[in-house]
Design goal:
Elements: H1 2-15, H2 17-20, E1 25-28, E2 33-36, E3 50-52, E4 55-56, E5 59-60, H3 63-74, E6 79-88, E7 98-105, E8 110-115, E9 119-122, E10 125-137, E11 141-147, E12 154-158, H4 170-180, E13 183-193, E14 196-206, E15 214-223, E16 229-238, E17 245-254, H5 265-274
Antiparallel strand pairs: 1-2, 3-4, 4-5, 6-7, 6-17, 7-8, 8-10, 9-10, 10-11, 11-12, 13-14, 14-15, 15-16, 16-17
Length: 275
Amino acid sequence: MRWRLLVALAVVVTAGCGSLFGGDERADPATDTLTPAPVPEVTPTPEQWPVAPGVTANAVADADALVAAHRAATANRSYVWRERRGTTTHPNESVPLFDRTVARVESQTVYHVWTGQERVRLRTGLTSVADYSEYADGTERIVRYRYVGRSDFERQRRHPVDATAHRHIGLSAASAIERYLDVESATVAAVSVDGRRHYEVVGRNWSRPDDDRVTDYTVVAVVSPEGFVRSLDASYTVRSVGEPRRVRYTFAYEKVGETTVDPPEWDAEETDRSS
């Protein structure tokens, strides 16, 4: 009797498997076998709408992709690139900006760049200078600089370097994009520049500040659909032992597609003296 009872229980459990698991399988009367029940199709959630390389509707998702697109977009354009920086210890006042670098670029190999940076790379490595500029005429670069504390200028002739690969032009802009647009989230809005659609990217919560003393961070950039970052404006507060400092860094492209470069006056004057 006991074995008959166990057999009966096994038959009952087997017959009820479909109901126990919510009808995942159903019997095919023609073959008397079990076939899978149809599974409802699930529409995947689409990714955020991309507005430019590396930029989505609510984030700078890939700063490296944006940098690559920006370098490609500037490779075949003429422009004036102006980089500025400033600091103040008066948090309620605007930050005064001073030119850090100004570059006039006619083509990849024809440009004139000046920088007010105090440390530049010469043949012997990083050197302190009071004035530094370069003129590239398509065949060579002429580097002109003056050491701190001296009044006379020195010159060097260098091999040509493309503007996108120049440490004071293309590389400097790329470094700024990679550094200042590394934000955790951003708001993106369509704007018009010269009658063409661009996007204004506003970011906060800097992902990699210099240290934890950086607060009140904001960056605003204007980006074309091709990834050309026409302007960038970052500001933040740095807390230190003394008074907090408000820092601002900006760059902007001007006269895009309308820039030509003539030899600087100092090149013509020194050429006349040497002839």
